[in-house]
Amino acid sequence: MTLIFAHRGYSQAYPENTMKAFKEAASAGADGIELDVQLTKDGELVVIHDEKVDRTTNGKGFVKDFTFKEIRKLDASYKKKKLLQKEPIPALEEVLEWMTTNQIICNIELKNGVFPYKGMEEKVLDLINTYNLKDRVILSSFNHYSIVYCYRLDQEIETAPLFSEGLYMPWVYAQSIGAKSIHPRHTAAPNELVRASEEYGIAVRPYTVNKEKDLQRFFAVGCSAVITDDPVKALQIRVR
Question: A Pfam family name for this chain (predicted)?
């Protein structure tokens, strides 16, 4: 069965990359969540997609220029006015601690393509091991050097290169870097690529699959998972 991963949590209805979005995704029946991590000025792992806080919070500036205490004061829900409660940017540790109360799978995307965030890989792996969640976490990144480094640090962790354009025989590439899966943009994942990769033992989890026709295609072809903003819609289509 194709699993459903909620992209930045249930981001269609709730503020992306917040505990509210993750908890609502789990409540809705999603099999997994996808989130993004970066480092604060004082070296704390925080869950946010953009290098700047401007789009998703009421603050301005780069994540890397905030201390953890400062970034926690920002409101990540201010654009979703129907929510009366302020939602802070979560620490990755907060998410992993919550995961010990359920069986959700977590895809952690390392957002280190613009800023290298030295030491981020070690910090992420240490936290995963602290909470004994290695079998429920996938590490992905557009920075393939980073996920190769993660694999070299710990060969038991599942890694997945992200890519947005067509890649020739991606299952061969994945095997060559020790990755057990690939996360292509949905437009770069034709049925033939999905079938061949899965046949060679490489899981395929395309992102960000929101349209009904695309969800239907990936469920029909039998990829390992889809990453979607709307897990409720995906669940409804999967059971048809």
Answer: GDPD
